[in-house]
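Students often ask why inverse folding is considered easier than folding. One informal answer: many sequences map to the same fold, so there is more than one right answer. In these notes we will look at a single instance of the problem. The structure comes first.
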């Protein structure tokens, strides 16, 4: 079985082919997978990503056939999940002179996962470049594709993109290049996108924008085939599959508020949905007619219900609306709770309890993590005191998640 393949002068694939039926993200990879790492044997030898932790020692052996690991100057970690960073457990000690290159969010994760507290890290930001002696690496942050700390790396001289999970396939390959596979890999490429990337499709736009600045001639991902023909076809597939195809969706937002902080969340949700071409209707339950609110809820595809907390409970007329919602058939609709609070925010949890008594699909942090692995999308949406930048970002993540559920193409 091959241990390495030269992709371009001094650029090597050094990977592990895993032809088992691999358990992965609650799937079984029937065709297996690969963990692709890369060695750029320049004046400052650089490794890009590693392999699953189970195969770390084997990986270091493969690398050692090409280079003395103590000569490695940089280890670039595009994504910290252990199927790519896991080889650090074996490699870090053998490459004591290597600086670890990653995004700021990745630093602590890597330190904690592999006991790297005393190692040198080089934190890179979107657009930074690194001279590795004869080649230049450019880094673009691609947050949430598919975890928060992810980035992609581009070698300017060789025009090779190393995007880690992105543009991957789960196939235990016999040939590293897609054009030598002996079959059309498109279905495998789409299957991978659907399982791993599509839940995060709202962030694919960032990737497509980043690629506009790059003249990519080869895509060397970290699972499955390397792409060097019809590159644009694969980029276009990501753009097409992540685009919105379902239109004319409606959201109803109902709230009560004490000091207008919960109103600010409702207003921000309204603005978000307007900007995303989903029609929002907003009601203050203490001012609007209840029949009108319930009519709007009947017509909506998603319903957000929010309240400030006073004396550990909801305020105003909201409970009357929720009691009526329990009696309605809301099947197929999406429900979410929100609110601003000062101390414990009990009202938000009480709303969530009411929503759970309806037959809507009620969003919770737990259900999001279990279905997508996302940890940055939180339901209910809880904001302490007045929403500010960070909280608005949190509201956007939740609203974006609902928007994607409403308009999902796959
Ligand atoms: Fe292939 Fe996100 O790990």
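Output (designed amino acids):
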């Amino acid at each position: 079985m091959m241990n390495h393949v030269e992709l371009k002068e001094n650029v090597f694939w050094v990977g592990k082919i895993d032809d088992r039926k691999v358990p992965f993200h609650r799937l079984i990879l029937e065709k297996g997978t690969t963990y692709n790492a890369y060695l750029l044997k320049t004046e400052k030898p650089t490794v890009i990503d590693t392999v699953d932790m189970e195969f770390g020692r084997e990986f270091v052996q493969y690398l050692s056939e090409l280079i003395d690991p103590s000569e490695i100057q940089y280890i670039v970690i595009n994504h910290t999940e252990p199927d790519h960073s896991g080889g650090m457990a074996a490699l870090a000690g053998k490459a004591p002179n290597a600086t670890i290159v990653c995004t700021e969010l990745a630093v602590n994760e890597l330190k904690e996962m592999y006991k790297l507290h005393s190692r040198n890290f080089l934190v890179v930001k979107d657009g930074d470049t690194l001279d590795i002696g004869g080649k230049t690496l450019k880094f673009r942050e691609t947050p949430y594709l598919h975890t928060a700390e992810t980035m992609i790396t581009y070698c300017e001289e060789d025009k090779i993109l190393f995007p880690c999970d992105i543009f991957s396939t789960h196939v235990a390959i016999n040939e590293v290049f897609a054009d030598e596979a002996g079959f059309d890999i498109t279905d495998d490429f789409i299957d991978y996108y659907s399982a791993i990337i599509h839940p995060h499709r709202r962030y694919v736009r960032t990737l497509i924008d980043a690629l506009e600045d790059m003249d990519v001639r080869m895509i060397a991902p970290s699972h499955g085939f390397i792409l060097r023909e019809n590159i644009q076809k694969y980029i276009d597939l990501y753009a097409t599959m992540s685009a919105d195809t379902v239109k004319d969706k409606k959201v109803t937002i109902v709230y009560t508020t004490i000091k207008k902080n919960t109103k600010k969340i409702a207003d921000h949700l309204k603005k978000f949905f307007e900007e995303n071409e989903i029609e929002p209707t907003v009601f203050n339950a203490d001012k609007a007619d209840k029949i009108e609110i319930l009519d709007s809820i009947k017509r909506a595809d998603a319903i957000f219900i929010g309240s400030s907390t006073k004396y550990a409970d909801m305020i105003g007329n909201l409970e009357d609306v929720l009691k009526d919602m329990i009696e309605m058939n809301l099947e197929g609709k999406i429900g979410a709770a929100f609110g601003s609070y000062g101390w414990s925010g009990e009202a938000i949890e009480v709303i969530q309890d009411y929503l759970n008594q309806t037959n809507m699909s009620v969003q919770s942090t737990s259900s999001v993590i279990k279905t997508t692995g996302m940890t940055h999308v939180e339901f209910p949406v809880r904001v302490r005191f007045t929403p500010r930048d960070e909280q608005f970002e949190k509201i956007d993540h939740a609203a974006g998640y609902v928007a994607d559920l409403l308009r999902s193409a796959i």
